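Appendix B, Record 12. Input sequence as logged:
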Amino acid sequence: VYKKILAQKPQDKALAKKIVDLSEQNKTGVAGAYRSYLKIDPTDKAVQLKLARIEVKDPKKKFASLEKNVELEPKDVHSILALDGIHMTRKKYADAEPVLGKALTADANNAKAISLMADCYLKQGKNKQATAILEKQAGITTDAKKKAAIRKQLGDMYLGLKDSPNAVKSYEAYIQTNP
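Logged structural output:
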């Protein structure tokens, strides 16, 4: 009934919200109700997030929803990292890098974002940038096992870069922090 009325009044925000609420209660047609509502109010962040979470099974829809959410809420690190995950899964590392930059702008000490950025750099062959960000992560990580793993990875990377002094320093730190 509400959908028929909404067809007559397509810009009725209150009615569209009522359809969203009923769809959520009945657990039917929820994604369609969210999309209809977002046509009327595309700035509703809560509904954008709900739609992005529903559209997990269709990567193209999830990607668009997450992009819109990041646009609406640029400090939402969770959504930014979810968007980055799609880029990384598709092996689009050059596209993932600026997305991770947004995550680090929103939260400069976010361990997951730092780790993903290091991985992104490594996958692109940007070893110097990867070592720089891993050094940062090693500096802020409090978990001894994680810190040891980072130090070992740094030692391996410095060896690959033929930077023996930093490799030795990283391996020494690895040995000291390895529980």
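The radius of gyration is 22 Å.
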